[in-house]
Amino acid sequence: MSWNDADRSDGQSRLAVEQEIKEPDRYRVLLHNDDYTSMDFVVSVLRNIFHKTPEEATAIMLLVHRQGVGQCGVYTREVAETKVRRVRSTARAAGYPLKCTMEKVH
Fold it and tell me: What GO molecular-function term can you cite, just one (predicted)?
């Protein structure tokens, strides 16, 4: 049976397939400002973990510094969780309290 045959015989078959291939939820990863983490370290995190250019990393770091929070990127849940864990472990290993969170994009 071809896809066209399935579409003709049962309109619900096509709907079920379309529902199965729904885009995965997306999550934004955020860095939060603190009084201890150096700007250079934040730029390094943005370059090494989020693969930002030096210019992008500096712009995000300044946004975090001035506004208290800045977005590093938008990813699937698993990728976002991994990035958050990497930031936290890298910061702790360097002795910084850098806060990194994720939130679902609505």
Answer: peptidase activity
**Assigned domain for 17 exists:** no
Tens-digit pLDDT profile for residues 44-60: 999 999 999 999 999 99
Tens digit of pLDDT for each residue in 9-42?
555 666 666 667 889 999 999 999 999 999 999 9
Sign of CA dihedral 52, 56, 59, 60: negative
Q: Judge contact between 83 and 91, C-beta under 8 A.
A: no
CATH number at residue 75: 3.30.1390.10
- Residue 29 per-residue DSSP state: E
Amino acid at 2: S
Residues with Cβ within 8 Å of residue 39, at least 6 apart in sequence: 61, 65
Residue type, 79: V
| Domain-located, residue 36 | yes
User: Domain count of the chain?
Assistant: 1
Q: How far is the C-alpha of 48 from the C-alpha of 42, rounded, in Å?
A: 10
